[in-house]
Amino acid sequence: MQTSQGYSVFLVDDDRAFLHSLEHFLQQKLKQNVHISSFASGEECLKHLDEKPDIVVLDYSLNGDPYVLNGMEVMQRIRKAGSQARVIMLSAQDKMDLAVNMVRNGAYDYVVKNEYTFLKIHHVLRNAISSIQLARRLRIHRALTRAALSIALLLIAAVIIRHLFLNSP
Question: Which distant-in-sequence residues (6+ apart) come within 8 Å of 78 by Cβ?
Fold first, then answer.
């Protein structure tokens, strides 16, 4: 949900204490620039995709239950739904091949859970927000360029038509 004041961020983690702490930390750091929604499961997050989050911070290992979607499956469903949200994968696994696989499959970034997790997520969120700002400006610039080109073509057509009708015998 692109709010008039800022950006929408979904936090998804089955560890409710971690989720609450991260939400509180980010609200303090990001202030009113970001609207944060928290979900304790991937399924809950997916139910709210119609809110069009700009960024999803998503735990890779959700619950460990084989009947519950893991982070990779949730990210795939986010993509399948057509969402352009930047997905930041979060995991306690410090494995390079997993991180590379996540990014290759559409993750914006991969953050390892450790003592610096909150700071790292804050940093990655700021980068993602900058990326979103740039994309929004580019869309506006393209729209203005198309409008200016359309006006220029209409003016050229008007000059040609005027020339044809004023200079005809």
Answer: 45, 46, 49, 56, 85, 87
Token pair 């700002």 in the structure block, residue: 133
Tokens of 43: 């399924």
Per-residue pLDDT of the chain (169 residues; tens, 9 = 90+): 444 558 999 999 999 999 999 999 999 888 767 899 999 999 999 999 999 999 999 999 887 666 778 889 999 999 999 888 999 999 888 888 888 888 898 899 999 999 999 999 999 999 999 899 898 889 888 989 999 999 999 999 988 888 888 776 5
**Taken in order 66, 68, 72, 78, is the CA torsion positive or negative?**
positive
Total-model pTM? 0.79
Kind and range of the H or E run holding 87: strand 86-91
What burial letters (b/e) apply to 25-60, b meaning 16+ CB within 10 Å? ebeebbeeebbbbbbbbbeebbeebeeebbbbbbbb
